[in-house]
């Protein structure tokens, strides 16, 4: 799979695209470096991507073009640095457009749309053996208010054996909860047998998502925050 992704990189006219420092012709080299056997090379490539296709909250015309390759790398079983790639995708999905960019196409909207096409991949990463990967995948899924994201998050809240993963999944689900799942999270918030972190993050996610947190739920959240 990695070989196919790397071959397809050359089909993009990167010289016509831009990132934070100008022409984006270096992006293919950086993405190729993410599959290097040398940790230092991978780390350097990630650092560069975090300052080029995403830079201090801004995305550029090269950003949405890079997203499909990052998503496909996530789906490669041998891929290293999964949490960092998931974090980069989170930033790309929530970035603001470059002020110097033309009005259309909007690189921020295009980047978010490109990231949204990988929801099924992020959901599969909720089954990864490393908790850090599951945490990063859960947070990313919480950006997309669709059932394809809600269902795996709800399963993670219920079934994951790591409280940190369950807590982040509860927060992410709260941010995008439909009425039925919001009710389930409110019940979890007041359930004293539940892990405190899961209760707290369920309440915070609901609040961030705009769902009512009132009465006993509000009291429980206030107590957990103290």
From TrEMBL:
Q: What are the boundaries of the signal sequence?
A: none
Which Gene3D superfamilies does this one have? Leucine-rich Repeat Variant
Please give the Pfam families that the UniProt record associates with this protein: HEAT_2
Matching entries from InterPro entries are given as:
ARM-like (IPR011989), ARM-type_fold (IPR016024), PBS_lyase_HEAT (IPR004155)
List the Gene Ontology MF annotations in alphabetical order.
Answer: oxidoreductase activity
The record's section on SUPFAM superfamilies has:
ARM repeat (SSF48371)
- Top-level division of the source organism's lineage: Bacteria
The protein, known as:
HEAT repeat-containing protein
Lineage at the top is: Bacteria, Pseudomonadati, Myxococcota, Polyangia, Nannocystales
């Amino acid at each position: 799979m990695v070989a196919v992704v790397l071959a397809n990189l050359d089909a993009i006219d990167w010289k016509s695209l831009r990132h934070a420092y100008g022409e984006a012709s270096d992006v293919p080299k950086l993405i190729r470096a993410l599959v290097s056997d040398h940790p230092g090379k991978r780390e350097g490539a990630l650092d560069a991507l975090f300052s080029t296709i995403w830079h201090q909250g801004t995305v550029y015309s090269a950003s949405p073009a890079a997203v499909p390759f990052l998503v496909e790398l996530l789906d490669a079983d041998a891929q290293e640095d999964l949490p960092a790639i998931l974090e980069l995708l989170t930033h790309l999905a929530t970035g603001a457009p470059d002020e110097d960019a033309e009005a259309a196409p909007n690189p921020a909207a295009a980047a978010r749309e490109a990231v949204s096409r990988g929801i099924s991949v992020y959901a599969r990463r909720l089954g990864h053996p490393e908790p850090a990967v599951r945490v990063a995948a859960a947070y990313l899924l919480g950006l997309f208010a669709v059932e394809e994201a809600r269902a795996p998050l709800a399963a993670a809240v219920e079934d994951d054996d790591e409280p940190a993963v369950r807590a982040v999944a509860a927060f992410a689900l709260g941010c995008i909860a439909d009425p039925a799942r919001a009710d389930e999270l409110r019940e979890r918030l007041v359930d004293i047998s539940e892990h405190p972190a899961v209760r707290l993050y369920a309440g915070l996610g609901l609040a961030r998502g705009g769902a009512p947190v009132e009465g006993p739920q509000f009291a429980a959240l206030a107590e957990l925050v103290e």
